Amino acid sequence: ENFDLCFASHAQTSQLQRDINVNMLPRRIQRVIRLVSRSSGSCRNQYSVPCRDFSALPQSDGEWVSAVASSPTTAKEAESDEYRGVNPSNDFSERKGDHCRKISVTRKLGKDLLNDPYLNKGTAFPGHERERLHIRGLLPAAEMSLTSQYRGVMAKIRAEPNPFKKWLYLTGLQDRNETLFYKCLCSHVAELAPIVYTPTVALACLNYSSIFRRPRGMFFSARDRHQMASMVYNWPVNEVEVVVVTDGSRVLGLGDLGLHGMGVVMGKVDLYVAGGGFYPARTLPCVIDVGTNNPQLLGSEEYLGVQRKRIEGKGYLDLVDEFMDAVKLRWPKAVIQFEDFETKHAEMLLKRYRNHFRVFNDDIQGTAATALAAVYGALGVRGKGPEAIPREKFVVCGAGSAGLGVANALVRAMVKHGASEAAARQQFYVFDHHGLITAARPPGSLAPSVATFARPKGERLSASSLLEVIEEVKPTALIGLTGAGKMWGADVLAAMGRSCDRPMIFPMSNPTDRAECTALEAAEATQNRAIFASGSPFEDVLDAAGNRLMKANQSNNFYIFPGVGLGAAAGQILPISDEQLLAAAEALAACTPPEALKEGIIFPPLQNIRQISSKVAMAVIKQSMREGQANTPALKKLMPLLHTDEAQLDLSLQMIISDPNQTFIPDYSSLVYRGLGRAETHMNR
């Protein structure tokens, strides 16, 4: 008991625990040994390898305390303003009877504590914490609960008609009180997701430099060449599970916004928390600033990014290579999601890294999986199953990375259900800004990925315009990923209505003003018979009495990417294959109940996103196991169940994915102050 653990080295404390039976010691000494053995890492001022194991201390007087044996919290981590969310390495759970509350250790007092958004509770600090944490008198007398706080926030949000002002208010709240922000987002995810992410985030991206207040995430630029491997250690968290990165070259449908792409990835990581249950501290938004070709940003004095033309060619690849290597060096288990890279780089970077890094591209693969789930849902509305997909005809407007990603995913689904690849590709009519893509284009004018969808030279097709093609070939689905705005007029939509009884009309471009048509236009042109799904949200089409005439479904990537990220992180999957994304699409489609399909609803309620993400994650892991991937000890033990007892496998995977110790639930924890140890005090001097 008198052993000076604060001065003990990490090796000494580890040896102490090996030499004695810790469980035989009094409970208060056990707590000191485990607590300070983690703190010994801070004496060395180094980061340790994270561990996600949980250990329980023995019961005493009907009370128990469970400590998380995670990465030690160093002085740098504890004091950093960039420390995000609840750190399990600093958390305890104290339980008496059926009541369980979390306890977190802090080294801040008074104003410093109130200015920390990750620990601040605002008016929810109880009286005893106000006293011991030196904040009595620094807050109004009222002691509110988290529930009453978030109800007040939601009332303010709903009273504000301007979506961008709502975004500004929520961002300010996140900068003051992160727990309250995520309580609102997780409790009302269907309502707030369009504010936090698309379409409202588009306005935030356009104005990012002028509204910049507090940095979130990490900023890598061309000026950081050969420094990124050391830069990643400036981030204070040891265990990052998801990294979302952009180069800002094609932000939503807005084009090249350079550094302003950070607004998109900030929104994306918030949705990983709300939808996938990731701890905020384990998500990291990043931007690789290689310049911009946007003349307005290049000439703006407010622009916060590198004001130069974009780096291209080998220089660009060298920067992205360095970033990827740096992230893998610091966080080798992290899932890396590419976001809003322009077409010429998106496919190339995915192919370059997918076999060596745990990476996927949401614009290509996430959009494709969501669109495929929408098609499966539309087939369900018609009373058909996924096996009917080879007989569908698709007109796809947009030959960029997203459009081709959707087309290729549909081809793979057709092949899976019995079609040959050649026959499947003959079911597609793809348009770019020059018109219908055919083999008659000049040699070398089509990229190899585009040429596979070119209509053959010998085909007798008199049509060339979009309207003429629809009238001649009678497609069953019209998909738009152009980002060009309203390009489907009433004549095009009416022609789709004549093509089949329940045409699929999917204007999937973002944001709202870039959609190819609106829900109302599709309903009027098809006499409310269209099965509609858009990238941005639209209101349902109603009659004068308020009865729904046509459901305006939103084909939102939010249904897919949290589950894919969760499955890849929990299963340590490498690579994340196209077949796993197909499995994710099928799992998403299966979440929509049959009674909803009868009403034209092809997606499940977004409010159930955590349950949906769990099912998507399970499908991704199971497919990876079919591919021979069992990269964790738990999955290796479950491999025999893959072919013998799938029900037991599902139950076991559900327990792994939904581990309450690894799922973020926004709630306040009791705060306990811990001052610096003697070694740390000596270091600070």
Q: Could you characterize what this model shows?
A:
The chain is an alpha/beta fold. 43% of the residues lie in helices and 12% in strands. The chain contains 30 helices and 19 strands. Strand 3 and strand 4 form a beta hairpin. Helix 8 (178-187) packs across helix 9 (189-196) and helix 24 crosses helix 27. It is globular and about 85 Å long.
Topology summary:
Blueprint: H1 10-19, H2 27-43, E1 53-56, E2 63-69, H3 75-79, E3 91-96, E4 99-106, H4 110-114, H5 127-132, H6 146-159, H7 163-176, H8 178-187, H9 189-196, H10 201-206, H11 208-211, E5 218-221, H12 228-231, E6 242-246, H13 262-276, E7 283-289, H14 295-298, H15 313-330, E8 335-338, H16 343-353, E9 359-361, H17 362-381, E10 394-397, H18 401-416, H19 421-425, E11 428-432, E12 435-436, H20 448-451, H21 466-473, E13 477-480, H22 490-499, E14 504-507, H23 519-525, E15 531-534, E16 541-542, E17 548-550, E18 552-554, H24 561-571, H25 578-590, H26 594-597, H27 609-626, H28 633-638, H29 646-657, E19 670-673, H30 678-684
Parallel strand pairs: 4-19, 5-7, 6-7, 6-8, 8-9, 10-11, 10-13, 13-14, 14-15, 15-18
Antiparallel strand pairs: 1-2, 2-3, 3-4, 11-12, 16-17
Helix pairs in contact: 1-2, 6-8, 7-8, 8-9, 13-24, 17-18, 17-25, 21-22, 22-23, 24-27, 25-27, 27-29
Question: What would a concise description of this structure say?
Answer:
The protein is α/β, with parallel strands linked by helices and 685 residues long. Helices cover 43% and strands 12% of the residues.
